[in-house]
Amino acid sequence: MNILRIALTLIVVAYSSITFAEGGCPPGSYPQEGQGWRACVPIPGDTSGEAPRPPAQQWADTWGALAVTDNGQINGQATDETTEIDAVNAAIADCEAYKGQGCKKLGTYRNQCVAIAAGDTASRISVGKTEASAVANAMMDCGANKITNCHIYYSGCSLPKRLK
Predict the structure, then answer these.
(1) pLDDT tens digits, residue range 31-43?
(2) In whole angstroms, how far apart are CA 27 and each of 5, 19, 37, 47?
């Protein structure tokens, strides 16, 4: 009977030391005590309790383009194309669809917005990070050049697209 009691005591002691080995702290931390206080602190170098970092964001560029007729009338546009040449081809096709003659590339833009302010005697083209900033810049440029009756003829954006 004495041997059974000793074996049972050893089992209880062994179980107690396993259960309270971390002093009641969650995995990845250990107890720390001071005068009148007790806390669980992370085990140095242990990253098991950290959440995994999310994967880095990936973005794809987009292109826009404007096309003009042979007499200089801005008559074609394209946005959100994956390459510059695709944007140019789409803008020229848009120009030709409106019966434009001699359509050709006026310009391209990538990952930004464009606005055209037109007035009685001329027009101004401006770009910006947002459509509102492109419009404001075009109108300001139009006014600064003393062009009368300025209004926004066109505005559009080709902004980066998030892949992940």
Answers:
(1) 888 787 888 888 7
(2) 33, 12, 20, 11
